[in-house]
Amino acid sequence: MLRLRLCVLNVLTRLSLTRLSLFAPCRNKAGKRSFSPIMLRRLKALKIDPSKYTDPDSLSEAERAAFVRLDIDEATITWKRVLDTNDRFLRRITIGQGPQEKGQTRETSFDIAVASEIMAILALASSLADMRERLGGIVVANSKDGRPVTADDLGVGGALTVLMKDAINPTLMQTLEGTPVLVHAGPFANIAHGNSSVVADKVALKAVGEEGFVVTEAGFGADIGFEKFANIKSRYSGLKPSCVVLVATVRALKMHGGGPPVVAGRPLDHAYTTENVELVKAGCSNLRRHIENIRKFNVPVVVAVNRFSSDTDAELQAVLAEATAHGAARAVICEHHGKGGKGAVDLAVAVKETCEAFKASGESFKLLYDDALPIKDKISTVATEIYAAGEVTYTPEAEAALERYERMGFGNLPVCIAKTQYSFSTDAAAKGAPSGHTLMVREVRASVGAGFIIAICGDMMMIPGLPTRPAFYEIDIDPETGKIVGLS
């Protein structure tokens, strides 16, 4: 992914002039001038007479100028470098300071690789042909007269696809018990759309047949992972879920009920290791909100409560009762971590029966908003309906970006909201089910090739930094045996 990103960035770094010399390379080995396939795409986009496609010399001066001149406004370049490592100092950098760059200095930044638009495209493409079109349609900047400049305009859409041609094939793996698993793509739900690939889902559905079941993952909570599964992935793929499995744990619900924070590397507080049914019930406000959110898409919910050794029967039964009382079709206890497949039989039966009942009911899955809504209205719909926000505010920069994207014709795209995964609000410390809070949109980006508008909210960063106590404090090696210690 990094190599592919740099393929485009090397082109952008060299755009020191407002002109890209596409016309000069119009030659073949025999010395005859001709257009390459990527050049023909640009000619078609410019609506130049197809009769001129075989002879570059037939273009008029005006057509030549339109063909070769991108007229990029360097201040509008939005393409980011990516790195799959936490590094807070790369959130804002200056490039172009080398003597060979001839003074083309500008500010830019890195994103984490899972936030890459190419990662999103990999996950949303339905075929190689679809991926080719999406990659070519990536908007990397604007021209000085406000037109979008794409990867195909730069002439690199085909090369990008060649680099990704094998990546579109899912990886077939298996569980410890031999169940086939397709592993494909990795956009995180807190900063991207958070779902495995459309291609993997379609391959799996074809493999299991009409009567089979495919389980696909939507990352983090239903407020981000499932919302984006529905409003982005289902919108493009046409695949509609028959049931949603909402996973819960007693420990997490206790934290949402007011328990102390869980800190990595430190012993669990006694609140999480001793019975406290009232704390669990208080935390079920979070579970109820998730169930209510999923039901807004008109799809049934099965709650799966993963059992830990410290959970008591009274605590587990309290979760099951709260789940079914607030709209879950079924709620079951799962012990697959300790017992393997046998520990998830009740969940499998509940899912099968729930899907069958949903199919027999004649009801159908629905989206939360229509394509035709303005971008702000889409953001507001998610904020109020899913996050229970009281209002949405925008920085001046976000307002300007929204106006620009609407003007450029991107207003029909769905929205992908980047926010903390720890709370319904943008405050990671606000547990339970906060409501009436303000969703502050700090920045707005357009991932046109992937097919959505990104609203970055609160203090969410697109490349994370290390915590106060990084995991590397625990990691070392035993020089006698060569074994790594501290990873458990």
What's the gist of this structure?
It is built from 16 helices and 17 strands.
Provide an overview of this structure:
Mean pLDDT is 91; it is low at 1-21. The longest helix is centred in the middle third of the chain and has 19 residues, at 277-295. This protein has 488 residues and is of the alpha/beta class. The protein folds into three domains: 2-164, 2-Layer Sandwich (Domain 2, N(10)-formyltetrahydrofolate synthetase); 242-361, Rossmann fold, CATH 3.40.50.300; 375-457, Formyltetrahydrofolate synthetase, domain 3 (Roll), CATH 3.10.410. The protein has helices at residues 2-13, 37-45, 61-68, 117-124, 128-136, 151-154, 157-164, 198-208, 222-237, 250-256, 277-295, 313-325, 336-339, 345-361, 375-385, 396-407, and strands at 81-83, 93-95, 106-108, 110-112, 139-142, 148-150, 171-174, 180-183, 244-248, 301-306, 330-334, 391-394, 415-418, 438-447, 452-457, 476-477, 484-485.
Topology diagram in text:
Layout: H1 2-13, H2 37-45, H3 61-68, E1 81-83, E2 93-95, E3 106-108, E4 110-112, H4 117-124, H5 128-136, E5 139-142, E6 148-150, H6 151-154, H7 157-164, E7 171-174, E8 180-183, H8 198-208, H9 222-237, E9 244-248, H10 250-256, H11 277-295, E10 301-306, H12 313-325, E11 330-334, H13 336-339, H14 345-361, H15 375-385, E12 391-394, H16 396-407, E13 415-418, E14 438-447, E15 452-457, E16 476-477, E17 484-485
Helix pairs in contact: 5-7, 9-11, 10-11, 11-12
